[in-house]
Structure to design on (1178 residues):
């Protein structure tokens, strides 16, 4: 158990990679503060995680032996983030890890000049500024304790471009920039900041993920064929499972990675190797 | 560590309900309730884990109440509080309000201010902790000591007494203990007073690190039980130990006392914590129930544990050996392989048959000149084949040989002759003293005796040899070693080291040094070939290497000092398969270059700790690359048939890991000292743990620790323990640090007093042999050591030498080390003109800078140009604080790096 005695905060924990990450952390002995908006967002053309899904993630983690706190949190709102973190600290004491996983894939699917001002701002606000707000909130306490690991869930879209995903790609590239800069800010204080870049992750039923389907929809690929479309694009001829990404996150959270900071750990079946 | 200031309580809260708990909590204090579901029944591992985690989860400054609701409908309430917010009674109050045992009312604040927790002392050498571990553990011991009627004032003195015992040999008789209410306290624990007196002794408040302390916070009366892990309620007095070893006394339902130990795994192992708790319990029990006992008479170990510790010093394998004599054991080998070469000396070779015949003629010659069984015959011959023939001849005549080295001063030879009462000495030395009518015989005179002589010779218990050892006090004394001891030594090692007819050994050491006993008889009793190494070859590593190659030597016995010289020359092609170290402590790190050329599977390196009085060797440790990298000081477990005890000054066994005097029993114990009945009785004492009532152990005068795995760490001589300015110093440790320097091939450290009468003039002088191809840089070597060693252990001087001087026995010869030349580059400047600055402070700073930087310092010298760095600056500050002077902020030093600027 590599995370025994550690408390980890996961944003966007209701489903998908957030759920898989939370469960993997639980299996490694961590206690968890699970954060999610638990509501839909105006401007996002698909339903977001629900309170019921967050409770299910919590139950899975409790079954693995974790103490779990669930908190509604809007990463677009600094106050909301600060309150969620304060509550988590009240319950668990000092926080050891944060996984900035909350993010949206759409509105996307159009060339850059067709993106509206509000659409652009929303994407940046959630996918990039949300992670910054969390770092802003926990950075001070972690620095003071000279301990902590922050993992930002970026994407291969943070490394290469994708047609018709300018907002998402810009936000994820920005997130990797944020990762590197924050890593240098906190390195003297032994707080680590890293990014994980997943490739095409399967929408596994148990995780209730729907990212791939939403990307396919944005690209106008028939949903019945979307998985095949993405498989052929990945050199290992398989989609990434949510657990594959969660394992990378667990490593970066654990003391095994105590000298790893400012890096991007890519889990993409070789996609960006070309 | 968060958690050291927190305590926790768990109580059953089945059927109380969240709403009702929240209402009660609202009255007690401004805290919220955290309900959490546990998907398991209370006894399932998952629930146990959750409960434990919740109990041990620290709060930062306040109070946390968690309701754990189990799958079967039961519930536990876990309350964790910072002691600054709630003390024992406060935590009990809150718990009782929540469970409904007490009507809701606000929790009282703590009423006794707590002291700042003293800093933690470094891990004690008896701790055997895992240095990198950050975890902690606990251990509980129930004592038949009434909790209520036993005064709490007995606890700290009992802890202090236990700690002084763990200090081991040379303990100062004081111990620093801590409590959370008082900080660090120093107790004087004189051996002569009673436990009752000790309990009323006034400790002194001190500011220094603490190894062990007691949590003395007020608890509710009676406190809840500590560390049960089950039952309706339990208490955790600390979530992390505030002291490396933290003790808590609490009541048991039967009226007795529970002693709980919370310990840091980085400081002590679980086994050591358990042992320490047991010993503290024993001392506390005696304090409570037998207060008239003198401190010196307090027993830490009960008889069961004494037996256990005594067994620990016995090796796993038993010795398979029948008492026998050297001539009979040799005769069996000679009969088995009569044509094999026994001795090779230059171009001369003797087969076992020839050795048998020639030694028989010597025996007959001695017999013809009146030598009888039980007599002693002096042998003063250079290392030659003739020497081996003579020694064998003497023991075949039923006599014991008394070897002396022809290089010895005449006075010493004369002393041996008279002390040993020698009538006959076999020698070619013309200058051998002829006092007292001693008969001098040349070996060739003896060998001309007619016919082979063959009558029953010695018995196994008869002396085989008498070797003189020079103690640190008094004149040399003769150690009488019986035949059976030597036979046992060879039987104890033959199989383990596969000693046999294919081996070629060296005879490297003087016959007067008992390492040669091992070389000669180890070889001849296992059928090997003994290659004589002439004196001048032993002193020249290149010649010695050439001889090892030419004669294809496989078994090499060396002192570490001699071996380090061999390491200086190209040794890659040596066919040696076994190296046995003896005679001196071995710093295993020096073997790394050897391992580079000779991996462990081709050549086994064995470090043997030994004493003349216990027949050459006592223990054996195979040194591996892994041990060498770790700088292990283990000399291994006892040889089969030998056994070890480590005792305090009164001969009582000390706990494993604690430093004491090494005592050796078993097959190697000598018969005693010749004609020194008092000394013999003093050093050879009854073995209290042997079945045979006549068994004796030898008090070695060496310090050691028995590790929990039964291996011995040898720590040097008791009487050579060095103290400089009150610090106990281990020269080997300093030497080891010097040897870690890649620029150093060999090193020695000695203590020298400029004024022998004034201990304050004592200083450490180091001598180094630079590694191959490196120019001597004594300042650089010293600087590097200064970065590792505490200030009081940094040598004042480092003197480069081409080679370290050795005695005729191949050990370091401190008397032949040159007096170091102290640098006089910048003469001591006079203090600055009067009124210019604080001369006292300037003088103190100069002394400290000189000590830290190791170079003379003038008032205008730049700290950094003298080699200062931030690390040294920290040391300067520490030294200033130690003298009660204001410390020196680093930035001041950077701004104004000279003493004059700093003090004006």
């Amino acid at each position: 158990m590599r995370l025994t005695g550690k408390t980890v905060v996961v944003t966007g924990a209701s489903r998908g990679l957030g759920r898989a990450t939370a469960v993997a952390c639980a299996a490694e002995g961590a206690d968890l503060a699970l954060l999610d908006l638990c509501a839909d967002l105006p401007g996002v053309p698909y339903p977001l995680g629900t309170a019921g899904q967050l409770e299910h993630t919590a139950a899975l983690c409790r079954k693995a032996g974790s103490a779990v706190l669930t908190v509604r949190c809007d990463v677009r709102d600094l106050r909301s983030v600060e309150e969620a973190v304060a509550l988590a600290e009240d319950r668990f004491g000092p926080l050891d890890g944060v996984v900035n996983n909350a993010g949206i894939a759409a509105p996307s699917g159009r060339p850059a000049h067709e993106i509206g001002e509000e659409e652009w701002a929303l994407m940046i606000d959630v996918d990039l500024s949300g992670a910054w707000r969390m770092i802003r909130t926990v950075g001070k306490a972690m620095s003071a304790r000279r301990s902590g690991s922050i993992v930002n869930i970026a994407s291969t879209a943070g490394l290469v471009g994708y047609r018709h995903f300018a907002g998402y790609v810009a936000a994820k590239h920005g997130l990797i920039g944020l990762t590197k800069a924050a890593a240098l800010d906190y390195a003297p204080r032994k707080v680590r900041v890293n990014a994980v870049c997943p490739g095409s992750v399967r929408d596994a039923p148990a995780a209730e993920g729907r990212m791939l389907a939403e990307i396919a929809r944005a690209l106008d690929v028939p949903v019945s064929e979307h998985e095949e479309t993405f498989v052929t694009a990945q050199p290992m001829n398989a989609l990434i499972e949510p657990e594959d990404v969660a394992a990378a996150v667990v490593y970066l959270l654990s003391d095994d990675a105590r000298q790893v900071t400012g890096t991007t750990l890519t889990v993409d079946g070789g996609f960006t190797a070309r | 560590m968060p958690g050291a200031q927190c305590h926790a309580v768990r109580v059953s809260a089945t059927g109380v309900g969240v709403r009702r708990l929240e209402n009660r909590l609202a009255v007690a204090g401004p805290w919220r309730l955290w309900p959490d579901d546990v998907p398991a029944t209370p006894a399932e591992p998952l629930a146990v884990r959750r409960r434990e985690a919740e109990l041990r989860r620290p709060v930062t400054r306040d109070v946390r109440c968690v309701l754990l609701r189990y799958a079967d409908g039961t519930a536990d309430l876990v309350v964790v509080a910072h002691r600054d917010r709630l003390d024992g009674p406060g935590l009990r109050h809150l718990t009782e309000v929540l469970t409904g045992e007490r009507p809701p009312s606000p929790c009282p604040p703590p009423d006794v201010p707590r002291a700042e927790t003293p800093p933690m002392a470094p891990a004690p050498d008896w701790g055997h902790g895992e240095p990198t571990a950050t975890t902690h553990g606990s251990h509980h011991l129930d004592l038949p000591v009434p909790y209520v009627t036993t005064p709490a004032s007995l606890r700290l003195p009992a802890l202090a007494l236990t700690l002084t015992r763990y200090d081991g040999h040379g303990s100062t008789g004081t111990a620093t203990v801590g409590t959370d209410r008082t900080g660090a306290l120093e107790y004087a624990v004189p051996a002569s007073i009673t436990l009752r007196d000790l309990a009323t002794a006034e400790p002194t408040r001190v500011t220094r690190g603490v190894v062990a302390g007691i949590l003395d916070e007020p608890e509710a009366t009676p406190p809840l039980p500590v560390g049960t892990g089950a039952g309706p309620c339990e208490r955790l007095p600390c979530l992390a130990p505030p002291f490396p070893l933290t003790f808590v006394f609490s009541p048991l339902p039967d009226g007795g006392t529970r002693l709980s130990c919370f310990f840091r795994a980085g400081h002590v192992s679980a086994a050591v914590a358990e042992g320490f708790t047991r010993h503290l319990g024993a001392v506390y029990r005696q304090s409570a129930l037998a207060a008239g006992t003198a401190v010196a008479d307090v027993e830490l170990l009960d008889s069961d544990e004494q037996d256990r510790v005594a067994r620990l010093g016995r090796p796993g394998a038993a010795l398979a050996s029948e008492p026998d004599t050297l001539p009979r054991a040799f005769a069996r080998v000679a009969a088995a392989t009569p044509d094999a070469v026994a001795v090779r000396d230059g171009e001369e070779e003797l087969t076992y048959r020839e050795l048998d015949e020639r030694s028989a003629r010597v025996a007959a010659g001695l017999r013809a000149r009146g030598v009888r069984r039980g007599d002693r015959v002096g042998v003063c011959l250079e290392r030659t084949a003739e020497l081996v023939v003579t020694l064998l001849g003497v023991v075949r005549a039923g006599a014991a040989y008394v070897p002396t080295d022809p290089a010895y001063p005449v006075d010493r030879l004369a002393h041996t002759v008279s002390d040993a009462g020698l009538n006959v000495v076999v020698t070619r030395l013309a200058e051998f003293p002829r006092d007292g009518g001693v008969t001098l015989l040349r070996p060739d005179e003896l060998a001309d005796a007619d016919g082979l002589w063959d009558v029953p010779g010695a018995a196994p218990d008869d002396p085989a040899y008498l070797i003189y050892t020079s103690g640190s006090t008094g004149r040399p004394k003769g150690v009488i070693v019986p035949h059976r001891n030597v036979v046992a030594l060879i039987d104890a090692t033959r199989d383990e080291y596969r000693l046999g007819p294919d081996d070629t050994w060296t005879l490297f050491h003087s016959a007067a040094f008992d390492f040669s006993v091992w070389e000669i008889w180890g070889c001849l009793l296992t059928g090997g070939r003994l290659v004589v190494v002439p004196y001048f070859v032993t002193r020249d590593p290149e010649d010695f290497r050439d001889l090892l190659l030419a004669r294809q030597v496989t078994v090499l016995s060396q002192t570490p000092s001699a071996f380090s010289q061999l390491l200086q020359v190209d040794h890659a092609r040596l066919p040696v398969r076994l190296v046995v170290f003896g005679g001196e402590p071995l710093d295993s790190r020096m073997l790394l270059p050897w391992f580079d050329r000779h991996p462990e599977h081709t050549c086994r390196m064995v470090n043997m700790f030994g004493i003349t009085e216990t027949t050459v060797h006592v223990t054996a440790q195979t040194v591996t690359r892994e041990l060498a990298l770790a700088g292990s000081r283990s000399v291994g477990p006892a040889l089969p048939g030998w056994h070890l005890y480590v005792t305090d000054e009164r001969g009582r066994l000390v706990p494993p890991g604690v430093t004491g005097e090494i005592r050796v029993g078993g097959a190697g114990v000598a018969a005693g000292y010749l004609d020194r009945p008092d000394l013999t009785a003093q050093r050879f004492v009854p073995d209290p743990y042997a079945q045979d009532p006549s068994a004796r152990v030898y008090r070695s005068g060496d310090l050691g620790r028995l590790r929990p795995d039964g291996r011995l760490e040898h720590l040097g001589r008791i009487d050579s323990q060095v103290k400089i300015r009150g610090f106990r110093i281990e020269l080997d440790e300093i030497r080891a640090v010097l040897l870690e320097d890649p620029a150093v091939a060999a090193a020695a450290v000695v203590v020298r007093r400029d004024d022998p009468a004034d201990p304050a003039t004592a200083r450490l002088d180091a001598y180094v042999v630079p590694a191959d191809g490196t120019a001597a840089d004594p300042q650089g070597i010293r600087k590097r050591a200064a970065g590792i060693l505490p200030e009081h252990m940094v040598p004042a001087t480092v003197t480069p030498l081409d080679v370290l001087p050795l005695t005729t026995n191949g050990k370091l010869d401190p008397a032949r080390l040159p007096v170091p030349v102290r640098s006089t580059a910048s003469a001591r400047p006079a203090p600055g003109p009067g009124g210019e600055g604080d001369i006292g402070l300037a003088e103190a700073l100069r002394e400290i800078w000189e000590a830290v930087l190791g170079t003379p310092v003038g008032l205008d010298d730049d700290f950094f140009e003298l080699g200062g760095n931030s690390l040294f600056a920290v040391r300067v500050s520490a030294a200033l604080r130690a003298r009660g002077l204001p410390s020196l902020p680093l930035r001041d030093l950077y701004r104004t790096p000279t003493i004059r600027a700093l003090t004006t």
